[in-house]
Amino acid sequence: MKKYVPFRMNKPPVSFLLDKKTAVITITLLILTMISLVVSTGLGSMKIHPLEVIKVLVGSGAEQYTVVVQSFRLPRNVIAILVGAALAVAGAILQGVFRNPLASPDIIGITGGASVAAIIFITQFEKASIHLLPVAAFLGAATVAVLIYILAWKRGVTPLRLVLIGVGMDFAMHGLTTLFLVISHIHLTSKAKIWLTGTLYGTTWNNVSIMLLWMLVLIPLTFVFGRNVNVQQLGDEIATGVGSELQRHRVILLTISVALAGSAIAFGGNIAFVGLLAPHIARKLVGSAFGGLLPVSALIGALMVMLADLVARTAFAPMDVPVGIFTSAIGAPFFIYLLYKNQNR
Amino acid sequence: MTQLLHSTSLKIFGILICVVLLVCSVFSSIVFGVMDTSWKEAVEAYASFNGTNEHIVIKEVRVPRALIAAAVGASLGIAGALLQALTKNPLADLSIFGINSGASFFIVIAASFFSVNSLSGFAWVAFAGAAVSGVFVYFLGSIGRDGMSPVKLTLAGAAMTALFSSLTHGLLTANERTLEEVLFWLSGSVAGRKLEMLAGVFPYMMTAWILALIIAGPINTFMLGEDVAKGLGQRTLLVKITTGITIILLSGSAVAVAGPIGFIGLIIPHIARFLVGIDTRWIVTYSALLGAVLLLVSDIGARFIAMPKEMPISVMTALIGAPFFVYVARKGLARS
Question: Which of A102, A171, A344 to mutate to test the interface with B (most CBs of B within 10 A)?
Answer without folding.
Answer: A171
